[in-house]
Amino acid sequence: MNTDVLIVGGGLSGLALASKLEKSGVNYLVVEANDRLGGRILTKSVKEAGFDYGPAWFWPGQPRMARAIEELGLGYFGQYSNGSIKYEESDGKVFANRGFSSMQGSYRVKGGTGALINALAQRLSKENILLSHVLHSVEQTVQGISAEFNAPKGQVQIHAKKIVLALPPRVAEEKIAFKSEIPQTALQAMRQIPTWMAGQAKILGIYDRPYWRDAGFSGDAMSRRGPMVEIHDASPSEGGPYALFGFVGFSANDRLQLGDEILKMAKEQLVNIFGPEMGNPLSLEIKDWAQDIRVATPLDANGPGYHPAYGLPAAMRNLWDGKLIFGSTETAHQFGGFLEGALEAADQVFATLNVKDLQKVSV
Ligand SMILES: Cc1cc2nc3c(=O)[nH]c(=O)nc-3n(C[C@H](O)[C@H](O)[C@H](O)COP(=O)(O)OP(=O)(O)OC[C@H]3O[C@@H](n4cnc5c(N)ncnc54)[C@H](O)[C@@H]3O)c2cc1C
């Protein structure tokens, strides 16, 4: 198979870049390892409402997200924040009225962040998207690059002028064999970039009633006991079902050891904080991103604990005469790590591709 720009990774950054290339009339392919698009964006439907197991928020002052929502014809709404925050001590004692909702002022996408992915994918030519193709090796050729994928029907080789790795640099360094030489400094730089939120896990409890709202609470809670340490309302913009989600405070290793026991503990915690009705969820599920090999490496098990200064390190620029390009949110200079950063990364890559030349001649 041949193309001009080979985008590896069908998350927000890869799809945003693809939509720019599609609009510009450049030949491209998006190749994704999973059997679904979205990457860290994972929205599951329950009774036709979307619930986010990955990112849920964007914020004022993020221009690309605002533009994408508008251009894609999507809706957005404010994070539910009526009512006060609850606080659970390490001994299980619960206090109410500990201040305002902590994520007040954050925005959410109507239908979940997956709506962004669906809307972008709909604007791409279907034949330009390959799912369930895992990139395992890539090399430089005279013409450009040659990439090898494990695919459902065996090995697939794709030749392109340029390859864009729209996936976490750490995952690339761990999982992809670079058969042509790459400086050690570049490999080291890739390894050193923590993948944003990769060590986290989210638990979602979905209910037919918003029991916490009925009792006058926002659904926000902080806990020193766990398993969830930070809980927020995750309900749709209108109607139900209703949901709370929590970031899990236990380490990736402890989560693994606990297995399903952690959901039992989470249910008990929700009952303890918000009352007995919380004992009967429609669904209670965990997404442990630290166990997702397309997102996290063992280095990500214990996240950095702060928001790193992201951007594209000098050592990762101009590799293979500019034919090997990095483009996940981690490479964005201003908003790295965020959804906004994924869109920024797509802009950055698009600016470095010589689109005029690519439009003229194709492979
Ligand atoms: C729990 C959680 C909560 C978050 N909350 C927020 C939030 O509220 N707001 C916010 O702005 N951001 C949040 N984020 C961050 C946000 O999810 C990311 O910024 C964004 O989704 C990154 O998009 P991306 O396309 O750059 O990377 P990814 O979404 O990681 O996409 C990379 C893609 O590459 C694919 N891939 C990997 N390896 C290969 C391979 N070898 N071959 C082919 N394909 C491959 C992967 O399967 C994946 O689809 C959160 C993240 C998590 C995990």
Please give a structural write-up.
The chain has 363 residues and is an alpha/beta fold. It folds into two domains: 1-41 and 113-197 and 304-363, FAD/NAD(P)-binding domain; 78-108 and 199-291, Polyamine Oxidase, Chain A, domain 2 (Alpha-Beta Complex), CATH 3.90.660.10. The chain has ten helices and 21 strands. The strands form five sheets. A seven-stranded mixed beta sheet has the order 8-7-17-18-19-16-20. Strand 1, helix 1 and strand 2 (28-31) form a beta-alpha-beta unit. The longest helix has 14 residues, at 261-274. Bound molecules: flavin-adenine dinucleotide (FAD). Residues 8-14, 31-34, 39-41, 54-58, 134-135, 166-168, 171, 175-176, 196-197, 200, 202, 289, 294-295, 328-329, 337-339, 341-342 line the site of flavin-adenine dinucleotide.
Name the features.
FAD/NAD(P)-binding domain, Polyamine Oxidase, Chain A, domain 2, 363 residues, single chain, seven-stranded mixed β-sheet, 10 helices
